[in-house]
Write a structure and sequence with these properties.
- The chain has about 325 residues and is α/β, with parallel strands linked by helices.
- It has one domain (about 45-315): 4-Layer Sandwich (Purple Acid Phosphatase, chain A, domain 2).
- The protein is built from 8 helices and 13 strands.
- It has helices spanning about 10-25, 25-35, 60-75, 95-110, 130-135, 145-150, 190-200, 245-255, and strands at about 45-50, 80, 115-120, 160-165, 165-170, 175, 185, 205-210, 255-260, 270-275, 275-280, 300-305, 310-315.
- The chain has a 6-stranded mixed beta sheet with strand order 4-5-8-9-11-10, with helices on one face. A 5-stranded mixed beta sheet has the order 3-2-1-12-13, with helices on one face. Strands 6-7 form a two-stranded antiparallel ribbon.
- Helix 3 links the parallel strand 1 and strand 2 (about 80).
- It is globular, with a radius of gyration of 25 Å.
């Protein structure tokens, strides 16, 4: 049954009360509230999250990266936090090609990056783990994470630092898969997890965390085949953290973590759980510097960190079109 309209008497009564409100000052108070906007938080730092660069001399990564840095500069970025997969691939690539990738990486950053930068490592930055394709034995002094740490002059795989009144945590979540010589799994090993809990316990600052592989994400649902026939949803252990619930519990208990950044999937999403925002920032390279309908266009995250512990997060195109 369709409900009847309010009676004329009720309508008149409501209208009369609204009019009376103007006489007693209700309307004027509402107007003042509407015109007096709350003070906006003061920005502490404007930063960019550059993830999945996949730099290589064999594709258009050099002009593409120039566009990325120009776009960040035009936005007034003061600091860049990378998200891993800095070079195209050193996981399953022979040494000669890896040397060329890192050489171009250093050239591009030296010529075009004019602000401080901190690096996170991804699966493609680990040297030689797929021995059959990389032609490494595992005894080389730059095998595994050692090569990237040396190239970037880093003391360890995970670390933290403070900047502009915010705390930053850089995680390293790629571990070898014991069942697959050319595979890897995403989780924090025991040493790193203990360090993470202690590090968060020692800070009172609002915190940004970066991990190459997403800890929490909806992007696997955006790509891949239907799971209806199997009647269950399975996500590979190299695509999303296997220990997501445990790590999220650490973040939740700390009460400090505001934003968790990641890449890896070359897709964009944002999830909020227990006050913690998880964001996949796409990829600077888009679909590995090639045209694609499956992955995002070349982009990065523009982030304003505020003095009150809040933040603004926006995805920005680099202006480069892969061809």
């Amino acid at each position: 049954m369709i409900p009847r309209d309010p009676s004329r008497r009720r309508f008149t009564t409501l209208t009369g009360l609204a009019a009376l409100g103007g006489l007693v000052g209700v309307s004027s108070r509402a107007s003042a509230a509407q015109t007096s906007a709350p003070p906006q938080p003061t920005r502490a730092l404007r930063m960019a999250h550059f993830t999945d660069l996949h730099i290589t001399p064999d594709r258009s990564s050099e002009p593409g990266m120039r566009h990325a840095f120009k776009s960040a500069n035009d936005e007034g970025v003061q600091f860049i936090l990378t998200g891993g997969d800095l070079v195209m691939d050193s996981f399953a690539t022979p040494r000669e090609e890896v040397n060329r990738e890192w050489e171009l990486f250093h050239k591009i950053f030296a010529q075009h990056c004019a602000v401080p930068v901190e690096h996170c490592l991804g699966n493609h930055d680990v040297f030689g783990w797929c021995k059959s394709k990389s032609k490494q034995t595992g005894t080389e002094n730059d095998y595994g994470y050692a090569r990237a740490l040396r190239e970037l002059k880093l003391d360890g795989r995970w670390r933290s630092f403070d900047r502009a009144g915010w705390h930053f945590i850089v995680l390293s979540s790629v571990e070898p898969d014991p069942a697959d010589e050319c595979g890897y799994l995403a989780f924090l090993n025991e040493a790193q997890r203990a360090w993470l809990e202690a590090d968060l316990a020692a800070t009172t600052l609002p915190t940004v965390v970066v991990s190459h592989v997403p800890i929490v994400t909806i992007t696997p649902s955006m790509r891949g085949e239907s799971q209806r026939a199997a009647r269950k949803t399975e996500i590979p252990g190299g695509l999303v953290h296997l220990d997501a619930s445990e790590v999220h519990g650490i973040f939740r208990r700390s009460g400090r973590v505001r934003l968790v950044l990641s890449g890896h999937t070359h897709l964009i999403d944002r999830c909020v759980a227990d006050g913690v925002t998880y964001a996949c920032s796409g990829a600077v390279c888009g679909g590995w510097w090639k045209p694609t309908e499956t992955y995002c266009d070349p982009c990065f995250a523009l982030i304003d960190l505020m003095q009150d512990g809040s933040f603004n997060y926006t995805i920005k195109p680099t202006g480069w079109k892969n061809s």
